[in-house]
């Protein structure tokens, strides 16, 4: 049986390990530098509740992880009322023109299918490369879909994936799918009981995960690969990198293709803050602030706030309620982001009593426009399997768990076939 060394025990590494194991032809050893699994699926217990401060939701696009949760008998809690500046989110997307928006939604689904097929089947075509690099706002204009801007402002910008004037079309369409639009319309947005991290912890119990074992070195030979960690050297048949490439720049000699990918990706910063706030006496699960969704919004603007914890919302020891708040980090420090949050909460009728926890994530890697025009996507596909090395995670698919797991569903059979060819 083949042995695959996986770097990273986030959703990418764990789901790939499970899929490799299910083939019956490979076993996976996962090396994780942290003392926990889950990566950006991070949950924290506070004041009698568990709060997701990383991965938050599941939709109809999360078909595989939804199935895994059912297998583990993990229930999911619906996210009920979502508001944008006082209006229900679907009313905001409709913009007062339900028939026009419905027609545009159908047109979007057709255009999405056509465009994503082109990205998949002819990534090297010059016109396809140009469209891949185009900001998605420009692509929507080109398709004559102005109402779909509001859908993408909610689904893309509010989720921390970037503004419409800067996010490449190929990356925006990976997440803003017809199933995401339908999930919102049918109110099929949910969150797992006890948080996403608890799910990955239970999911990983049947896997060989080595926590606290950050990769110190990787030596790739013709037939095997040696992975050095604080526990020693492990020899494997293949390597799957499920962590950002830049985390390995001091541990391994990059190929020219790996170096080009490293140089073509810029990581954003998303601040997730669990805060105790007084004065917000609302019943809406999520409130989104439109002024922060528009291109040109300043770093640190409050994207959205979510009532934290299971209903009914609990109060903490100060008598205030807990909220999850999200901001683009830009170049702001943790203290500056907290100050900006405090100011905005006050402007919106509340008082920020204290910050219980803040995480600033390196988030939503963005492809360089010139690199996309020069064929980055085709090169990223072609480098899979070179030097017995494969790649997954946010850089090679998209930041969302659903995209990463679906990507692995396609990648793992390719890995098995490639390794089979090498072993003959």
Features of the shown structure:
single chain, 424 residues, alpha/beta, FAD/NAD(P)-binding domain, 7-stranded mixed beta sheet, 15 helices
Structure explained in plain terms:
The protein is α/β, with parallel strands linked by helices. Among the domains are: 2-37 and 196-255 and 383-423, FAD/NAD(P)-binding domain (3-Layer(bba) Sandwich); 90-178. It is built from 15 helices and 19 strands. It has helices spanning 11-23, 63-71, 89-94, 98-121, 126-133, 136-143, 148-157, 169-175, 178-185, 196-203, 256-264, 334-347, 369-373, 376-382, 401-423, and strands spanning 2-7, 26-31, 43-46, 49-52, 76-78, 82-84, 87-88, 190-192, 208-210, 217-220, 225-229, 232-236, 238-241, 265-278, 286-288, 302-307, 321-328, 351-367, 389-391. A hairpin with a 2-residue loop joins strand 3 and strand 4. The mean pLDDT is 92.
Question: Helices and strands in order, then pairings?
Answer:
Layout: E1 2-7, H1 11-23, E2 26-31, E3 43-46, E4 49-52, H2 63-71, E5 76-78, E6 82-84, E7 87-88, H3 89-94, H4 98-121, H5 126-133, H6 136-143, H7 148-157, H8 169-175, H9 178-185, E8 190-192, H10 196-203, E9 208-210, E10 217-220, E11 225-229, E12 232-236, E13 238-241, H11 256-264, E14 265-278, E15 286-288, E16 302-307, E17 321-328, H12 334-347, E18 351-367, H13 369-373, H14 376-382, E19 389-391, H15 401-423
Parallel strand pairs: 1-2, 1-13, 2-9, 6-15, 13-19
Antiparallel strand pairs: 3-4, 5-8, 6-7, 10-11, 11-12, 14-17, 14-18, 15-16, 16-17
């Amino acid at each position: 049986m083949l042995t695959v060394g996986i770097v990273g025990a986030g959703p990418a590494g764990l789901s790939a390990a499970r899929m490799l194991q299910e083939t019956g032809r490979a076993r996976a050893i996962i090396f994780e530098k942290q003392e926990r699994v889950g990566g950006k699926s991070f949950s924290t217990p506070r004041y009698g509740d568990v709060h997701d401060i990383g991965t938050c939701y599941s939709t109809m696009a999360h078909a595989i992880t939804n199935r895994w949760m059912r297998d583990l008998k993990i229930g999911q809690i619906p996210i009920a009322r979502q508001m944008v500046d006082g209006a229900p989110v679907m009313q905001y997307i409709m913009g007062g023109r339900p028939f026009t928006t419905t027609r545009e939604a159908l047109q979007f689904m057709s255009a999405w299918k056509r465009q994503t097929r082109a990205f998949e089947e002819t990534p090297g075509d010059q016109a396809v490369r140009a469209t891949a690099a185009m900001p998605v706002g420009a692509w929507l204009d080109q398709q004559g879909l102005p109402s779909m801007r509001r859908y993408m402002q909610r689904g893309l910008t509010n989720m921390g994936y970037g503004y419409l004037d800067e996010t490449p079309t190929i990356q925006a369409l990976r997440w803003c799918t017809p199933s995401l639009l339908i999930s919102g319309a049918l109110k099929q947005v949910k969150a797992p009981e006890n948080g996403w991290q608890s799910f990955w912890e239970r999911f990983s119990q049947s896997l060989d995960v080595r926590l606290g074992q950050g990769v110190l070195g990787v030596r790739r030979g013709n037939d095997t690969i040696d992975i050095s960690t604080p526990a020693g050297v492990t020899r494997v048949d293949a390597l799957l990198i499920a962590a950002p490439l830049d985390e390995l720049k001091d541990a391994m000699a990059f190929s020219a293709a790996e170096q080009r990918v490293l140089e073509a990706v810029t990581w954003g910063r998303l601040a997730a803050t669990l805060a105790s706030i007084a004065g917000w006496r609302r019943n809406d699960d999520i409130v989104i602030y439109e002024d922060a969704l528009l291109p040109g919004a300043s770093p640190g603007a409050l994207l959205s706030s979510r009532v934290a914890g299971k209903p009914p919302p609990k109060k903490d020891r100060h008598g205030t309620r807990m909220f999850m708040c999200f901001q683009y980090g830009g170049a702001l420090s943790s203290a500056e982001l907290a100050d900006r949050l405090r100011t905005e909460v006050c402007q919106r009728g509340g008082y920020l009593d204290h910050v219980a926890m803040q995480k600033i994530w390196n988030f939503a890697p963005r492809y360089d426009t010139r690199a996309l025009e020069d064929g980055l996507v085709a090169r990223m596909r072609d480098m899979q399997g070179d030097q017995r090395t494969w790649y997954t995670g946010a850089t090679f698919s998209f930041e969302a768990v659903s995209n990463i797991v679906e990507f692995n569903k396609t990648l793992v059979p390719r890995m098995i076939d490639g390794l089979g060819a090498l072993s003959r």
